[in-house]
Design goal:
Structural class: alpha/beta
Number of strands: 11
Bound molecules: nicotinamide-adenine-dinucleotide
Helix content: 40-55%
Shape: globular
Length: about 375
Amino acid sequence: VKKINVNLGKRSYGVYIGKGILKSGLLRKFGFFTSDTPVFVVTNSKINTLHADKLKKALKGLSGKILFYKIPDSEKAKSFPVYVKAMEKIAGFAKKAKPVVVAFGGGVVGDLAGMLASTYRRGVGLVHIPTTLLAQVDSSIGGKVAIDIKEAKNIAGNFYQPNAVICDLDFLKTLPESQMRNGLAEVIKYGIIRDNRFFSFLEKNIDKILRKNMAALKRIVYTSAAIKARVVEKDELDTKDLRAILNFGHTIGHAIEAASGYLKSIPHGEAVAAGMIMASGIAVKLYMLGKSDYRRITSLIKEACPHAARHKARPDKIMKALAYDKKFTSGVNRFVLPVKIGGVKIVDNVSLGLIKEAIKEGA
Ligand SMILES: NC(=O)c1ccc[n+]([C@@H]2O[C@H](COP(=O)([O-])OP(=O)(O)OC[C@H]3O[C@@H](n4cnc5c(N)ncnc54)[C@H](O)[C@@H]3O)[C@@H](O)[C@H]2O)c1
């Protein structure tokens, strides 16, 4: 098992990464569950069918009663109606005892379960057991939890750090290729913003990763999680212009999603991938990024996320969606832009004309 410590004083925790670690008795070693702790596992039917047995075995004899609570399998589960139902269920289940919430699934399950854990009785224990690549490298680490309203995604949320994150690579074996590519966009992002050597590793091993070679998966989950942990440690509450670098590619990515109609035409990761290509294009136009780094960035992204280059969103629609993005406008056209592979800068006041050109060329 590889362990990354996320050092946040009293809120510190470990991210454990490895193959088959859930069945290795890791939960037992924590000493985190006691024989009278009720365990409320949030999951969905798909993950429950595929993997619940492994978690049940790992928890056997460790805790009090256990409930596997299934939420719908889509972004729609990150909603107030689902949250309220889960809240009522956990209250009825745990009664007077303080339960532990286990988030067993992808980012949707993690965000909803995190909201539940952060608010039920003003906060109870939370363990993330992420089962998608995206959740293992990104959403389970760092404490952002949230649900959506119809006007905006992630608008009702909290910072709530988990007590532990367990990334068992075995879960990725059943993950469809499209979801692998979705997570890979974020993995490539870490290389571009922070780690040149990691980027080179990805260039050489993309096929191995897509074929789910375990050693390659271990390396990418470990390196990505470590980069996220180091950034979060320095800017836990996203107030210092550092955590913002994790949004590389996301400003235009969100605009592409909005312009192509959420959920349907382009997966989130691939929209971010397209956003990274366009942001890199802006950096070239501002003479911040060399052409050869730009070529390497675009070719790796297109290999890992082929939809990124084939989305149907029109540049004028993307520009319009950008204009509605509050973060973008109140941040005076703020962009995270690469200066090299392995380094980014936050740049304000990028001209609209230049953004438009980069979007047209990247589209
Ligand atoms: N909190 C954060 O910091 C943060 C960061 C990034 C993204 N997010 C959120 O994460 C969500 C996206 O997460 P996601 O990409 O994991 O999507 P997801 O949770 O919808 O999972 C994707 C699909 O994979 C299925 N699945 C999960 N594990 C599987 C497995 N092992 N085998 C087969 N199928 C499996 C799920 O049932 C689902 O159908 C979004 O709501 C986003 O806002 C949060």
